[in-house]
Amino acid sequence: MVTAGTNFDVEPTVGRVRPSVDLAEALQELKHERNAIILAHNYQVPQLQDVADFVGDSLGLSYQAAKTDADVILFCGVHFMAETAKIINPNKRVILPDLEAGCSLSESCPPEKLAEFLKAHADKNYYVIAYINCSAGVKALADVICTSGNADKIVRAAPADRNILFVPDQNLGAWVMERTGRKMDLWQGTCYVHVEFTARSINKIREQYPGAPVVAHPECTYAVRMLADEVCSTEKMVSFCKESPAHEIIVVTEAGLLHRLSKEIPDKTFIPGPTDNCFCGECRFMKMNTLEKAYDALLNMEPEITLPEPVRKHAEIPILRMLELSR
Ligand code: 13P
Ligand code: SF4
């Protein structure tokens, strides 16, 4: 629904704003014209985090998307995140600055492959728990969705008499099994960023900062999780760093989180988790979005997320179940 006074009849223009005009300010003006909200993930570039109305993890972003009364959601994150916002907001326009902003985990589990697997293992009568990092097609095949922020709650709530299939992240799945004691069959997907952190690289940085606790994302491998003082979602990492008495903290996740940490906790030092090679711990998909692309996207109202209604409808059920269960 477009509210009165919202004008979408704009000429498609790229780079309409002159370089001398502050783009962040121009984006804010445009946001008001469009009655839009800007949601940004913790891994987005600093310029996008700084213009967003809300910056958070996948769970927080899903709640924000569910409760907004804006007409337009400018989603600064990756495709599956914007798609999730669209699934629960069929009447809003959801804009993603770069449509190519994908996710290696999501790619590891194509819906056709999952459907085939479920058919071949029909005797297992799987209860499918899908990590939110997956496509709408996969969500449509799931019983419930989870994020790294609520995975153990969702797994604990699964029917006790059903076999569980957890897709697509094997590391997050294994971590939840350790925490809940619930056995699950795991899809063999991984995040290409988080598997780059190794026990060797973490031990090495620990030697350099002996007093610094290590906080790691559950998408990291078992060997890295074992070395961490805390394993949690990016939002919980922010709380951990705020509450920790330590002044130096080693943060083992995508490097974008360090901007938010340094901004909200300026008196502490955050050391980015290193890898064994020169890889910088940045997600190339997350970094595809820029302030320029965000401005152009909101100006031109594209790229826009669209979905076939039957897929959207099926995918909405497990997302709403998750939002209900993790309140
Ligand atoms: P969070 O939900 O913990 O922010 O994780 C999202 C993600 O993509 C991690 O790689
Ligand atoms: Fe996907 Fe990994 Fe990038 Fe997160 S960091 S969006 S899981 S590829």
Summarize the topology.
Elements: H1 23-34, E1 36-41, H2 46-51, E2 54-56, H3 58-67, E3 72-76, H4 79-87, E4 93-95, H5 104-107, H6 111-120, E5 127-131, H7 136-139, E6 144-146, H8 151-156, E7 164-167, H9 170-180, E8 185-186, H10 199-208, E9 214-216, H11 222-227, E10 230-231, H12 234-243, E11 248-252, H13 257-264, E12 269-272, H14 291-300, H15 309-325
Parallel strand pairs: 1-2, 1-3, 3-4, 5-6, 5-7, 7-8, 9-10, 9-11, 11-12
Iron/sulfur cluster (SF4) is lined by residues 78, 103-105, 133, 191-193, 219, 254, 283, 285-286.
Mean pLDDT: 93
Gap from first CA to last CA? 27 Å
Poorly predicted runs are 1-15
Strand line-up in the sheet with most strands: 2-1-3-4
The distinct ligands, each listed once, are:
1,3-dihydroxyacetonephosphate, iron/sulfur cluster
Helicity range: 40-55%
Helix/strand structural class: alpha/beta
Question: Any idea what the shape is?
Answer: globular
